[in-house]
Structure formats: structure tokens, C-alpha cells
Protein: Subtilisin-like protease
Amino acid sequence: MRTIEFLSQTIQVLKYITIPGLFQNPPDSVALFLDNDLKPSIFPSLNAWYTSTLHSLSTTSTTTFDQNPNSDLHDKSGLLHVYRTVFNGFSASLTAHEADALRTTPGVLSVIRDQPRQLHTTRTPQFLGLVSGPTSQPNSLISSANAGAGIVVAVLDTGIDPTHRSFSAAGQPNPPSKWKGSCQAGPSFPATSCNNKLVGARFFATGFKAGSTPKNGSTDILSPYDTNGHGTHTASTIAGCPADRASFFGFATGVATGIAPRAHVAVYKICWSSGCFESDILAAFDNAVEDGADIISLSVGGGPTPYHLDSTSIGAFSALNYHGVLVSASSGNDGPGAMTATNIAPWITTVGASTIDRRFPADVTLGDGTVLSGASLYSGKDPSVNKWLPLVYAGNLSSLRLGFRSSAPFCMRGSLDPAATRGKVVLCERGVVKRAEKGLAVKEAGGVGMIISNQFLDGEGVVPDAHLLPAVDIGFSEGKRVHDYIHTAASPTVRLSFHGTQIEVKPAPVVASFSGRGPSAQSAFIIKPDIIAPGVGIIAAWTNSTSPTELLPDERRTEFNILSRTSMSCPHVSGIAALLKAAHPDWSPAAIRSAIMITAYVNDNLGRDLLDESTGNRSIEWAHGSGHIDPERAADPGLVYELSTDDYTNFLCSSNYTELDIRTITRTAVNCSQNSSKPWDLNYPSVSIMMNQPVPTTSGNYEIIVHRTLTSVRDANSTYMASMKEPSGVHMVIVPDKLVFSRKGEKQQFVVKISANASRLQAGASRTEFGYISWTDGERRVRSPVAFTWHQSF
Structure:
């Protein structure tokens, strides 16, 4: 069986989902789009047409449609999801033969396979400047926004634990009158679970049920209840109520509060033990917009995908352009390599991760006296802590069972020989399995401690983990020193020590090693991620249904958990967007994102350029985008870059998307022959230009003109002067170099004339240099990064 989604405005069949065991050779991804005008007049509604279409197919196949009365289907005629808001259409389970029949139907435009996507604070409000002083007094943005009251943030994630005190309704205002959401009851989630804080909860599982086999030990519950913890964590980061005496086994003690503590949360559970299926993501988008959400927060992603084949991109386009809903999404955790960012459509606010000025230090002291710094959230009282113990390398401890020689270095469960491991500290390589699971493997083999070393591609960045035994995570360079010591010492020994919570760490912020980076494989004309925000060592609410490591043998339970992913940075931006929306209800999603980007900073708390954790060197814009978010400055940017639906359509035309592809995204017919703009003319808060060199050469000159329009968001006269830093090898001129505004809403245009010589490169190679343009009125700064890329064609 396959799940296929029909989107109409026309109908678009968006997905195939393969159920394991039914098809050994599934067909390629396809997509289908039928014009609504093709609906025969005998059908009173689109739903009737959809149903008839399915039944006509089923007469020649063995497909049986789900008639389970307890399923979350929108109707019982074979439709899995019916989409009415961010696009029109439905999803259904079909065989490959039926999909082929649809592919040949007149008017069909596209079909996309349904695939699972993966899930990607006591101090961050202070670090972000939202509160200050020993009593954490609110600064101007929280005050002017009434802490986000009246704003509804839709969280598309693993659900929520409604019993957690972070979602108390005490002192919470009523939701806005426009809100139409509901509280979908189910196991562990009675209809009374919702309140003035948690104003809505739904779950979407038809894609999950049609496209996966439950994992062994799965705790999936068909209700909005969160058995994973991830959704509870992200929701409380956005809008959790202040919760005093919060901590994670003594780490990060303090008051845990969301970024917008009076905003309302609506939860749309889309993620299950086997992933987050695109058909369910689309259904959640559809319902969140129809319910009246102001912000959609999505800490979920997959691999880079063309916009017209990406359900998140399609859903976000309609949410933003047709309903005024800002969509914030994580950039993924596949860094530090290039071209690893996800959720990179220009109508999505893409968020990378950074550290804050708090860490959880731990030391590895080798027998020769060398002290290496790492991180850990180990909180136990094991007698081996701070004691000298034998040190061994996991690669030398293979259990000799078939297949375990190659897995032993990564400390996979069952791969370590207990006789060689017992009583020792084991050095494990990072990768292949979860870091906390490596500790479980060592513990099961009788080991008493562990060191996890980054591999070369991981770089120097480490994240703290809630290990089950004394364990320290260290960077690649430190790991190499441990390897060398084990190789040369006659009887290697080690001592592990743990130092709790350290604050006021410098430098901070630093770009997290794991954070997904550009350039974008889909468009070289957009710098992604857009922004970075706190995503390392973030404490927030946790469900009581699972352990902090999510490992079944881990019997620990905690009210709060500390996690490190771009999944943690995205909700920070979602919460800040909620504050900005509350403070400026007339701002569009493009204005909010622009305010966030143009006011970002690119220096750490030592006053130096932002660093990249993976290398210790200066970070580049492919890693940090416009910089680190600065909420207080974003509340008063002075100017913004606005964007319209036509702007995005022109961008897609000039980016060589076909009119058919564009219609899949926008649901409207386009005529690209009338478009004369260049892709770098999209009125985006950053500038990215790529020049393809057809033959290797150092001669020739490129001349480009970039067009931009700024809009005033202040009721005051203002004059802005331009400044810039040219990318190396590039000459820029800003015309005019002075802009005068006399009223709110006034627009002024400018151009950037750019010239550069050709660059000698190997075939297929690229070179990018960065600079910026900036406008200032003496108090405010409107800064946009500029990327210029030379690419040598093959």
C-alpha cells in the first residue's frame, strides 16, 4: 500500500508511503495535481469527487480502505486526510497500480512520496536580554508584548504532557476570540486536559499508521499525549509558565520559563516512534491555520528537498502568504558539514543552534597528568568518580561475536567483551548509536566509566549528555590525545571529574557543531540558516512517561530535561516571534522575520567575531546566517524588508522552477515568461549571489545589480546612511547611500552594484566570500550579510 495525497486547486497527490513487506521495489516518488475546474458537475462537493475517484480505482484493485471507527480519519470513505486550508485535497492509501492510473489521468501535475522526517530554560531569557537583574525583571519587549498574551503558537511535534506545571492556566488570559481549536481526547489525554495555556491539542497518525511498522518497545499512544518528551520540551521553551525550583538532577537550577510565558500553546502531534510523516505534517499545517494559530513552530526536518516536493515548504507557503502565519523551523542537526541545512525555503524562518554562557564542564585527567576538558550531565554518586582507573579503547574490546568487530569502537550494545571491559573506563567513538546508549553498553559489559571522543567530521564541539555511568564527552583533538596516550602508555589510567553548572562562560554564543549549514542545495541565492539561537544545554519541561535518555533500561524520571539540538533553538525564535507579534500586531510574518534578521549580532561576549564550535575558528554566514538573535533590538528595527506572494513567485521563476512546479507550491497559475527579475532580487534581509563560470578562467568581469526595498515601521522622520564591508575580491556600490523616511509604511528603494573578476577554480569547485551592507540612523542598525559565490562548471 501507498499513501497518496491529493491536493486540489487542483488536486495534488502528494505522497507514497511504503508499508514494509508489501513491496520490495516501491515506485519512484511522484506527485499529482488536478485543476478544480475539472470536477464534474454531478458531484456536489470536492469531497464527493475525491471519494468517487478512490472508489473507481478500488474496483480494479485489492485496496481496502481504513474503516476503523477509532482512527483519526477525516471521513470513512478511504480518505486519510482532507486538506482545506493551506491547500485543498486529501490523502489516501493506494497500490502502485492505482498510483500509476492516477499518474496518467488528464490534468495530473505531480505526486510526492510520503516519507518520515525526524525530530531534530533557566538561563536563556537572561542570555537573550529579555530579562535582567538578580530578580529577572522583564525588559521592554516582554513588557510591551504582555509576555505574549493573546498569541497562539502551534507546536507541531510529539505532543505534550498536559499535567506538567509549565502548562498551568494560573494567571493565564483567555485565548483570543478568533481561536477555533479543539481538545482531542484520547488515552492519557482527557478532554479536560486543555486550559487557557494549552488551548488546543490534536493528533495526526494516518500517515504513521499507513507507512510504518511500530518499533519494538514502542510507547506510541493515539492521543495528543507526549510519550517521547520532545514536544513537551519545545512547547515549554516557547511559552511555558514560570516554574521555580527547576533543575535536572541538580544541574541548571533556577526558574524555568518560556520565552513568551503568557502566550497560548496549541499542540499538533505529528511525530511517532518511527518518525514524522509528511502527510501528517500537512494535515497539522492545515488544521493549525484553520484553528487560528499566529505562529507555527516545527522542530522537525528531513534531507534537502526541492520546494515543490517538500510538504513543509508547501504547507508553510500557504500558511504565510495566504493566512499571515509565520513558520519557524529548525535547520537540522547534520552539521558541521556544508549543505546540511533543512527547512530552507525562503518563506520559512530557518533557525540554527548556538551555545549560551552556561556549560556543564567535566574533566578527563590522564595518568601522565594531562587534563582534557569536556562536558557531562552525569549526576550519580558512583564511587569511581575522581578515582584513578584503568583506561582501555573500545576497539580493543570486541566480544568476537560475528559482526561486532566493527561496532565495538562505537560501543554498540553487545559488542564489548565483559571480561576485558569489567572495572575499566572505556574510550568510545562518537557515532552510529546514541551517545547515552554507548554508556549503557559499557555498563552492561561491566565497565565503570566512559569517554566519548568526537570523530574528525564532528570537530571540537561537544554536547552534555545525561549518562547512566560516569562519562565525559570530548572533542576530536582531545580524543586524539587520549588515543595516543592509550597507545603509548604501558598501563593507561584515567580519572573522571564533574563540576556541575558553570555560568558566565566566555566566549558565548558559539555556533554549535551539529547545527545544519548552508549553502542550500535548492537555491544558492538565499543564505540559510536565517538566524541562530540558543540550542545547546537547554533545560525545559519533560514528560514523566520516559527517561531523560529515552532508553528503556533507564528508570530515571525527571520533571525537566536538558537537551542540545536545533530543535531547542527553533522554539526560542518561535517564542520571540510571538512576543514581536503581540507587540506589533500589524507586522506581517515577513516584517517579523526581517526584524529578527537585520538586528542580529555577529560578535560574542568578548567582543570578537562569532566562533564555530567545530573548528574554534571564525564562523561564516553559511553557519550563522544573519547572526545571533537579539530580541530587544528586533522590537525596534526602524526598517524592515517586506515580501509579497508575487515576490516569492518571481523568485521561483528566476530560480528555474517550472510553472508546473510553482503551481504545486502556490496553488495559482503563473506565467514565468513575464518575469524579468533575478533570483537575488528577492527582497530578502540577506543577499546571496552565485556566478557560474562556464570554463576555467581568471579573465572577465561580472557585473550585477541587486534591488532592495526598505519599509519604515516607525511613526517618525528618519534618515539612514549606508555603509558596507565588501567581500574579498568583490566591489560594491550602494545607490543611493542615503534614505529618508517621513512616516510609517513609507518605502524606499536602493540598489547594490556589484562587480567581481572571474576566479580560477577546479571543475565543480566553488569559492564564497562574505561581506555586508548596513543602514543606520545613528541609533538603529539594519544589517544584511552578503555572500558572493564563484562556481566552476564541469
Observations:
- The chain has 17 helices and 42 strands.
- The chain has a mean pLDDT of 87.
- The two ends are 41 Å apart (CA to CA).
